[in-house]
Write a structure and sequence with these properties.
Protein name: Signal peptidase I
GO molecular function: serine-type endopeptidase activity; signal peptidase activity
Number of strands: 12
Largest sheet: 8 strands, antiparallel
InterPro entries: LexA/Signal_pep-like_sf, Pept_S26A_signal_pept_1, Pept_S26A_signal_pept_1_CS, Pept_S26A_signal_pept_1_Lys-AS, Pept_S26A_signal_pept_1_Ser-AS, Peptidase_S26
Number of domains: 1
Keywords: Hydrolase, Membrane, Protease, Transmembrane, Transmembrane helix
Order of helices and strands: HEEHEEEEEHEEEEE
Helix content: 10-25%
CATH topology: Umud Fragment, subunit A
GO biological process, one term: signal peptide processing
Distance between the termini: 55 Å
CATH superfamily: Umud Fragment, subunit A
Length: about 170
């Protein structure tokens, strides 16, 4: 190989690597990022130490839906919680049974044992541009009932999409 061909090949590889790094940084900054689940508040859906990929773009084009597992950004810590109440709705929990605008809501993502461990709460009305979130492990979760309060729309920075670690748990979040 001549010296100029070898130099051109190195330049091509260098350009490809720089482009790949720029694309990866753009994807991580504007579209996808990772978060580590800390604690047991989202069990059994998400467990302590699991790493999830979340979609940062989705809520720029759409609003959070009931049941979405979201990443909430607060000044000192991010939280992973499930959206339960939407703006303007009334939330009440009676003996673990969740009522939204006075109607029972089926919480298929939690066990009967968790429902039975959840006490009473509310009724409260969610302000406009705010959300009410709960952890799936209601007995120990810090959520909208007891510390996080209502979640402002701009505090929701993404939707959890995929568990990527540990590899044995790899799959979509529910």
């Amino acid at each position: 190989m001549t010296e100029s061909k070898e130099k051109n090949e190195w330049l091509e590889w260098g350009k490809a690597i720089v482009i790949a790094i720029i694309i990866a940084l753009l994807l991580r900054t504007f579209i996808f990022a990772t978060s580590i689940v800390e604690g047991e508040s989202m069990e059994p859906t998400l467990e302590d130490g699991e790493r999830v990929i979340f979609n940062k773009l989705i809520y720029l084009v759409d609003d959070p839906d009931r049941g979405d597992i979201v990443i909430i950004q607060r000044p000192y810590k991010n939280y992973v919680k499930r959206v339960i109440g939407l703006p303007g709705e009334q939330i009440e929990i009676i003996a673990g049974k969740l009522l939204i605008n006075g109607e029972p809501y089926n919480q298929a993502f939690i066990t009967e044992e968790v429902i039975n461990q959840t006490g009473n709460f509310g009724p409260i009305t969610i302000p406009e541009e705010s959300y009410f979130v709960l952890g799936d492990n209601r007995a120990i979760s810090k959520d909208s009932r007891n510390g996080l309060g209502f979640i402002d729309e701009e505090e929701i920075i993404g939707k959890s999409e995929i568990i990527i670690y540990p590899f044995s748990e790899w799959g979509l979040t529910k």
